[in-house]
Amino acid sequence: MAGQAIRIEKLTPHIGAEVQGLDLARPLDERTFQEVHDALIDNGVIFFRDQRLTPEAQKAFGRRFGELHTHPAAPSLLPGHPEILVIHADETSRHVAGEDWHSDVSCDPEPPMGSILYITELPPVGGDTLFASMYAAYDALSEPLKRLLLPLTAMHEGEHVYRGRYGVKDEGKVFPKAEHPVIRTHPVSGRPALFVNRVFTTRICQLARAESDALLQMLFRHVETPEFQCRFRWRERSVAFWDNRCVQHHAMWDYHPQRRHGHRVTIRGDKPFYRP
Ligand code: SIN
Fold this sequence. Notes:
Blueprint: E1 7-10, E2 17-20, H1 30-43, E3 45-48, H2 55-63, E4 68-69, E5 84-89, E6 114-121, E7 129-133, H3 134-139, H4 143-149, E8 153-157, H5 159-162, E9 177-181, E10 183-185, E11 192-194, E12 201-204, H6 209-223, E13 229-232, E14 238-243, E15 247-251, E16 260-267
The structure holds succinic acid.
């Protein structure tokens, strides 16, 4: 099959690119797959406009990059598609997915490699998503602070995030938790990335509680530095595909009581490591 000729337009020097000329509902040939893969690795998050994705087509696109992940807490709302996380907000919502800076489900022992979000319904204005490069966050740290962080690990926990959140019975349910390096090496690019986030990371294992709290608060603020970010303004039927290993994101819930709706497919990842 003839490949699709794609163009890649960067949004900022550190993070984000729009990929043009690609219909994600069509099977990707090897060359096109490699170009999309490389665009993701080079830019951390890539965007596509004007797509038409059935749940099957969105899952098939995700499966080109790995096995699909099923969310450990959110109920499956799309019959027959447990791997699809429905992202929905309306006038009755008390939370939205991802309303603070995070890397998806980092509490998993093997956190997701990437997430593919397809938005089909938007408020008249608002509902952007912000993305931040954790390579840029690591690179901007001073050398003494890098040296302090490199041997450290941190706990990431789901309990305080997920318990009671989805309005379903969860007594007796055990939510994931895991210890991960504070700085992880990206398994493809080989670059170091900061890997703590405000939603899931609860403490740095080797430090006293007060030291851990102070250092984490400083790092969580550092993650939010505007120079590390790009901001995506959705249009209906846009797709964002982000690499959770080196990017954090924040869904901007500035549109209540309006509706926003979409489907997310999440790709399984591997155990984070640090390799000098
Ligand atoms: C998420 O997957 O964290 C939600 C992102 C969004 O709704 O923009």
